[in-house]
């Protein structure tokens, strides 16, 4: 992302002006509270709450309990650890649901984050579960995605309590524990606990800022379809010398099949995938290459602006392949292999239609008549925000006051599929997607980190946002009274 001049539309909705003296007063309390917040952040990062089934789920449970304790100590008495079944009937990870009832006639704000993390992977310069601060950044798995979202919520509540200005809003803190595996129990959870989660404004703190020191509000997310491709060419392995030539192994077939999925310029070449309108802001190509770590001679794929390729067009990646390690080569033609394919979808694309398009493409382009089977797994709809909502106006003013500059409206190439479920459950709610990550955060990768200065600003911004939501309601009531 880039710190160049950015597009911030003027919304039709408005929010009350924020008193600079209040901003300074709250900022002072955030600064005073921050050492303790950082300690709590570090304690959460130390918990190996990896939600993938191959890892010990006892850490997931212990992290949920640690999160519940933090919000209980912040003054929310009604806290529950709740579960719902996954589609296969197995229990989902415990979610922390903490509730503070709204005063009569006041809105309720849901604060969402997740405490589960990705596996550590390779290539770290520090131990991934030993939080380490270097040059103002905290490194560690989950330091950004998304334990920092938990800390932003917690810090906002502590700051408001410390300053004695807790706004007239209800609160529902909802911290889930399986986002990194696709939130499989989320739909059942919403159905089972809908009454516990009712909200007028939903703050999803699981996104990123435009740059360190420049806030952003996420206004679109791509959808996703993920599945496996099984490729079969023989009913058993055979000697590569005796049979190679007339026969091509499954790995080579897989390579040829993968090559059909992009045009020569790198544009995704699957018929039936759609493109959204071009974004209003661009993402500087040199910045993109630097932030992504692109090697000097590597060319970028696709056409159009970088922001358009990231936010408005589909992308496709092979995330994994079952293959013989090179040190175990046995001189045979491999009869079978399996790939994990992920397709990111432009906002508005139907995941079911996209999955059908992938299946049709694979059937049409199977090399040499190989048996190719597509098995869809995870999928999720994209999302586009109502940029003119009252909640969005309140967020813009709060972020501008906290950072000292207007937030940028951005799209995100990633996906948060459960947002569509939230909209289905609460269609009248205003959903705000915020975050503390930045282009250097490397979420899911080695050396994941978060800028602690931006975390301070995010805590302040969320405290101001809650005040703004309460103030917007009061302003609306006053306007209505004057009209009547």
Question: Would you summarize the structure shown here?
Answer:
The protein is α+β, with helices and mostly antiparallel strands. It contains 13 helices and 18 strands.
Features:
484 residues; Aminopeptidase; Alpha-Beta Plaits; 6-stranded mixed beta sheet; 4-stranded antiparallel beta sheet; 35% helix; elongated; disordered N terminus; disordered C terminus
Describe the structure in your own words.
The strands form 5 sheets. Strands 1-2-6-3-7-17 form a 6-stranded mixed sheet. Mean pLDDT is 92; it is low at 1-12 and 475-484. It is an alpha+beta fold and 484 residues long. The longest helix is centred in the last third of the chain and has 32 residues, at 452-483. Helix 1 (20-45) packs across helix 13 (452-483), helix 4 (186-192) packs parallel to helix 12 (418-425) and helix 11 packs across helix 13. The chain has 13 helices and 18 strands. The protein has 2 domains: 20-221 and 382-483, Zn peptidases (Aminopeptidase); 223-276 and 313-380, Alpha-Beta Plaits (2-Layer Sandwich). The protein is 35% helix and 21% strand.
Q: Quote the average pLDDT.
A: 92
- Per the CATH scheme, the topology name of the largest domain is Aminopeptidase
- In the sheet with the most strands, the strands line up as 1-2-6-3-7-17
Identify the CATH architecture of the largest domain.
Answer: 3-Layer(aba) Sandwich
Described by the principal axes of the CA atoms, the overall outline is: elongated
Count of discrete structural domains: 2
Give me the count of strands.
Answer: 18
The largest pleated sheet is described as:
6 strands, mixed
Beta content:
15-25%
| CATH homologous superfamily identity of the largest domain | Zn peptidases
Radius of gyration: 24 Å
- pLDDT below 50 for ≥5 consecutive residues: which ranges? 1-12, 475-484
State the separation between the terminal residues, measured CA to CA: 48 Å
- Amount of helix: 25-40%
CATH class categorisation of the largest domain: Alpha Beta
Count of individual helical segments: 13
